[in-house]
């Protein structure tokens, strides 16, 4: 990707993402470039470390990335010996799904499932060995930049962002005791806690990932934050 485009109507819009991934597919087919990943490599590494510590490969967790883009994050887990059959990514851009499948095939990781799915309105397809009668089947949901993008979508007639639907959609898919790990550059840790922790979602704060900090005008902060929530048992 060419960088963070902060125009709200563009980032929150499916046509924008289709255009982005069409360009990246062309790059990939021409020069094998997988495209830039959102928020850079360190965020991926830090999220992968958190996943390894909290849902280790030995537990064969079912892991879903919401808004998986070119598939970098979920494919990084494969390199850490997670069971490929238990890993999945969804994206509402069919071109993102096409790109992630091309990238996976180049890494001989075709077994990882990438599907076109609008997270706010559809449930992701079940993987083999999942109980087909249940919806809350995932041990871990990952989000890197997708909640941010959704929050920039057009507001409804009541002035609500489409992101208000996100927390309940996430909670619906996670098994009791399972985790949701989110990395955001648009929301602070406190804002994420307010938006995700509620009786309705059953989410409790679990942990955070420390990102590099900066100090400006006497105040310190981070460019991005990553927060993990655990769903009540
Ligand atoms: C900022 S990008 C992040 C991509 C990837 N996670 C990364 O870090 O490189 C946001 C992604 O969310 C996807 N997306 C936005 N709204 C979505 C929705 N409602 N359902 C599924 N995917 C969505 C976009 O197509 C895009 O791939």
Automatic annotation (TrEMBL):
It is found in: Cytoplasm. GO terms for biological process: methylation; vesicle-mediated transport. InterPro entries: Efm4/METTL10, Methyltranfer_dom, SAM-dependent_MTases_sf. It comes from the Eukaryota. HAMAP family: Methyltr_EFM4 (MF_03188). GO terms for cellular component: cytoplasm. Its main location: cytoplasm. PANTHER family: EEF1A LYSINE METHYLTRANSFERASE 2, PROTEIN-LYSINE N-METHYLTRANSFERASE METTL10. This is Protein-lysine N-methyltransferase EFM4. Keywords: Cytoplasm, Methyltransferase, S-adenosyl-L-methionine, Transferase, Transport. Residues 63-198 form the Methyltransferase domain. One of its GO terms (molecular function) is protein-lysine N-methyltransferase activity. Belongs to the class I-like SAM-binding methyltransferase superfamily. EFM4 family. S-adenosyl-L-methionine-dependent protein-lysine N-methyltransferase that mono- and dimethylates elongation factor 1-alpha at 'Lys-316'. May play a role in intracellular transport. Its EC number is 2.1.1.-.
